[in-house]
């Protein structure tokens, strides 16, 4: 449905043609995308300037829909606006998505329409000819489409806000952690940092390498928070990384003092990070895995 470079045998409202005069149809998402558990939650409004199409929608002869697609995941869903509403709240399971989510707005006919002839049609092109519209035919395509940034599919979506990986300077320590700034800084000595940097350039490997460092370090940090003294807590309470983790623990209603295993807590703070790690390894080395099975 997302193709827009189609020559339709009847007028279609779209910015790429001149079928309509002084009309427009667009979708807008002004909300910040919220990650609620496994779901992406956000609202999409539509704006329509066309009295003729509005009358068809009001009379339930047409309906506004959103076509949502994640190509790599073969995810394709149509979401319908309720009658009389110009806003829809979407909740999409991020585990159903991969790489990219693209959303486009359409107005489609919900019944056969004849004659289809609106005052807004470009009479220089169509000469007032009545058209026959079938149920499901596309009447309008939004000027723009919405692309949700890739970070929203990553269970490590909040990682960049609290973690930083930098080159270390102590040759006696291949890896070290510094919690004295607003970010948890992971220091890697030259050789391991160079290898990390090379791996991080490849998107498929980036998730794997990020998961590995983030989860192991987070386990240590959570343990540090659990056992830190009042003086230590006073030193870190104003740090951004501590505030982010504390807020997440509060949202999850986790009392870290009563938790025995920080690995479990880390998997909740970074939702399904271990599943993401295993899935990323499987997807990256799928060909090798299939070869071994054969």
The low-pLDDT segments are: 152-160
Beta-strand residue fraction: 25-35%
Overall pLDDT metric: 84
- Overall body shape: elongated
Query: Helix fraction?
Result: 25-40%
Number of helices: 10
Structural class: alpha+beta
Oligomer: single chain
How many strands, what sense, and barrel or not for the largest sheet? 4 strands, antiparallel
Reading the helices and strands in chain order gives EEEHEEEEEHEEHEEEHHHHHHH
Rg for CA atoms = 26 Å
Distance between the termini: 38 Å
* Annotation, overall tally of beta strands: 13
Description:
This protein has 294 residues and is an alpha+beta fold. Helix content is 34%, strand content 28%. The chain contains 10 helices and 13 strands. Strands 1, 2, 3 and 6 form a 4-stranded antiparallel β-sheet that branches. A 4-stranded antiparallel β-sheet has the order 5-4-7-10. A 3-stranded mixed β-sheet has the order 11-13-12. It is elongated. Mean pLDDT is 84; it is low at 152-160.
Task: Please outline the helices and strands.
Layout: E1 24-28, E2 34-36, E3 39-49, H1 51-58, E4 62-70, E5 75-80, E6 87-93, E7 101-109, E8 113-116, H2 123-126, E9 131-133, E10 138-148, H3 159-162, E11 163-167, E12 175-178, E13 184-188, H4 190-200, H5 203-227, H6 230-236, H7 240-251, H8 262-269, H9 273-284, H10 286-293
Parallel strand pairs: 11-13
Antiparallel strand pairs: 1-3, 2-3, 3-6, 4-5, 4-7, 7-10, 8-9, 12-13
Helix pairs in contact: 5-8, 5-9
Concise summary:
The chain has 294 residues and is α+β, with helices and mostly antiparallel strands. The chain has helices spanning 51-58, 123-126, 159-162, 190-200, 203-227, 230-236, 240-251, 262-269, 273-284, 286-293; strands spanning 24-28, 34-36, 39-49, 62-70, 75-80, 87-93, 101-109, 113-116, 131-133, 138-148, 163-167, 175-178, 184-188.
